[in-house]
Amino acid sequence: MEALERFNVRGSVSLNAAMCDHMPDIVQECVRLGWELFSHGIYNTRLISGLSEDEVRTVVGDSVATIRRHSNQDVAGFLAPAISATETFLDLLPEFGIRYTVDMMPDDQPAPLKVRSGRLITIPYSTEINDIRVIGVRGYSADEWAAMVKACFDRLYCEGKDNGMVMCMPLHPFVIGHPHRIAALHDVLDHVTSREGVWLATAREIADCYERHYEDVLRFSGVLPAGAR
Predict the structure, then answer these.
(1) For the domain bounded by 2-221, which CATH number is listed?
(2) Going residue by residue through the chain (229 aa), what tens digit of pLDDT does each one get?
(3) Whose CA is closest to 137, among 173, 103, 175, 105?
(4) Which residues fall within 8 angstroms of residue 35, CB to CB, at 6 or more apart?
(5) Domain boundaries in the chain?
(6) Angle in degrees, 0-180, between the axes of helices 24-32 and 53-71, rounded to the nearest 10
(7) If you write DSSP's letter for every residue of 142-201 in order, what string do you get?
(8) Is the C or the N end of the chain the one with fewer CB within 10 Å?
(9) Each residue of 123-145: b (16+ CB within 10 Å) or e?
(10) For residue 56, which of 17, 96, 18, 113 has the smallest C-alpha distance?
(11) In terms of C-beta density within 10 A (0-12 exposed, 13-18 middle, 19 or more buried), how is residue 185 classed?
(12) Sheet holding 77-78: strands in order across?
């Protein structure tokens, strides 16, 4: 939190809703900092794989209601616990006011998803520069992780001059937040924020922008019916 605040970067928090009850002070600090909270299920160990549609509805509904109650924020996004899935869970998300998902990783730009009813878009997520995957699973050092993130940013920054790109940097405090690693995060944040024209947006803000400016794309894909706004 201190590292991001130092560089005026707001987090988009994939929040396991049980945190609201177990560690409400942390959730309230996120709210104070102006961070966005979106649903990551109830516990990260309670996967949705194998659940029925009604069981998935219970998980999504409970998590959304809990986060809203503790933060007074509308919950606009969803990332399934441990990126688990069912064949139809994306179809259910608009029922709860969810406007975007972070579960799909097809591109470096938002894209519309066709669901049974309502609207849903995908916001880019990355497992390639995810600190828990790179450092915790693959065993790279914090400095090597930072080099990967900066290389990713530089490539997307270059391509983004003609066509806006999104870089999602998934962080876990229990990985990058250790004293022997936190300097690597400062290095990355200094690199990113020193460049001109970078939009330090939350996931909700990216979704808002996409919906405002790309209604024709949504209609063409069938996500947005003709004549609707």
Answers:
(1) 3.20.20.370
(2) 999 999 999 999 999 999 999 999 999 999 999 999 999 999 999 999 999 999 999 999 999 999 999 999 999 999 999 999 999 999 999 999 999 999 998 899 999 999 999 989 999 999 999 999 999 999 999 999 999 999 999 999 999 998 899 999 999 999 999 999 999 999 999 999 999 999 999 999 999 999 888 876 666 565 555 555 5
(3) 175
(4) 10, 11, 12, 13, 202
(5) 2-221
(6) 70
(7) HHHHHHHHHHHHHHHHHHTTTS---------HHHHTSTTTHHHHHHHHHHHHTSTT----
(8) C
(9) bbbbeebbbebbbeeeebebeeb
(10) 96
(11) buried
(12) 12-15, 36-39, 77-78, 100-101, 120-122, 111-113
23: exposed, middle or buried (Cβ count in 10 Å: 0-12, 13-18, 19+): exposed
Q: Parallel, antiparallel, or unpaired: how do β-strands 12-15 and 36-39 relate?
A: parallel
Written as six digits, the tokens of 185 are 């995060």
Strands (DSSP E) found in the chain: 12-15, 36-39, 77-78, 100-101, 111-113, 120-122
Say whether 94 sits in a helix, a strand or coil.
helix
Name the CA dihedral angle for 160, 204, 20, 113, rounded to a multiple of 10 degrees. Answer: -90
Which residues have C-beta within 8 Å of that of residue 72, sequence separation ≥ 6? Answer: 31
Write the CA distances from 81 to 47, 104, 165, integer angstroms: 6, 13, 26
